[in-house]
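Supplementary Methods, section 5.1.

A reviewer requested that the exact input to the structure prediction be made available. We therefore reproduce it here, unchanged from the version used in the analyses.
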Amino acid sequence: MEDVLAKLVDEARRLGAFYSEARFQEIATTALTVENGLVKTYESDNLRGVGVRVLLSGSWGYSSSSDLGLSQLKRAVRKAIKIARSSRKRSLEAKVGTQKTIHDKASVQTKIESIEVSPDEKIRIGIEANKAALIGNTIKNATTRLGTFTDRRLFVNSDGSRIEVNSSMAGVQQLSVAASAGKMERVSDGESECAGFEFIRDKDWMKFSREISELATKAVDAQMPTAGTFEVIADPDLVGLILHEAFGHASEGDYITTKESVLQGKLGTTLAGPDVTIYDQGIIEGGYFVPYDDEGVSKTQTTIVHEGVLKGYLQSRQTAMEMHAEPTGNARAMTFENNPIVRQTNYYMKPKDYSLEELAEGIEKGYYIKARGSGGGQVDVGGGAFTFAVGPSFLIEKGEIKEMVRGTTVSGMVLETLQTIDAAGNDLKISTSVFGGCGKGAQMVRVGHGGPHVRIRKITLGGRA
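The structure derived from this sequence is encoded token-by-token as follows.
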């Protein structure tokens, strides 16, 4: 297939393209859902095809095909050329700089290929985990999901690069709903890893799902937190979620060039305290596997914020040219049917020196807020406002972490919130998910996010009066 992609690139060059690239992708996924002891769905899907992108006279053209015959693929090249020519007068001039030639193959290391594991084994594991979550009358619903996928991508471009990336992932997600005295609490959590099916076999998912139900049972009888603005400790999952949604998207180069981001024009500006350093990194323990982006650019560690100062943005080859910067390996496409656009990979905050107990010291009244059991939120990339749901959390009084409180919401302005981070923990957790990812431009790509525990001196919580 690599030689076929090379022929497509040569064909695009023959037809006048300044730059061209061809991407082959082959995806295999399985998804199981068990609810209250019964299998609701078991889905298995395979998708493969080729996408061709060309740059001609400053305009992009893109076409794709799931028919892998050479004649059909050459028709896709001609269609991409035609699209580029027809859009010359309707689009801004695009440019890409030359990149070094890369010949490489990168793969997630696996012991057991998920595709070789029988549906019966996956169903058995899902049912066992689900039944373990039904711990008593308080649990009104238990839903367990098990998912796997493999993703093989081949890339060839007119710069001479030939790259193969093989990704594998597996995970389990549990949702438990508890009800008591007219109140209801939904708690969900999942664990996924870039690995083969050994990740599923090696973990006690019955214990995992039972713990989620126990958490929901405790939380439904807890008090709501007091509404207001407080000092808080945020756990690594919540730190990662806030950074990804409220800050990460704002640092994406396409939002900068179109002046839609709150970070536009702020390079070199101090946005946070000295304990805040933020990276986007392609390969890191716990995260998603992105050694190269879908433009064939190596994805290493990109510094976005260094000790509070905004140092850079996430770039594709085009946005890098527009901003006189270097590509950062952040042009990603959901599948071969999609154009690459600027996306995050594994976005996280660097840990520092404090233990959890030290972070709590000095907080007279506040909360230890946790993402486990949370349900997403809303972000305004241009203005920087955010609202996120958080899971069952804990009261902090006079420097001590005390009783549990029910899940609620946190909100604020991202730049103001960053300014009030005054301490970062000495731990680091990065997580990703097989069950979804980050949406943008009608595309979903898998990402990772995280950080250490951090102390935030000012954030607004919803709750009781």
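The longest helix spans residues 70-86. These observations are discussed further in the main text.
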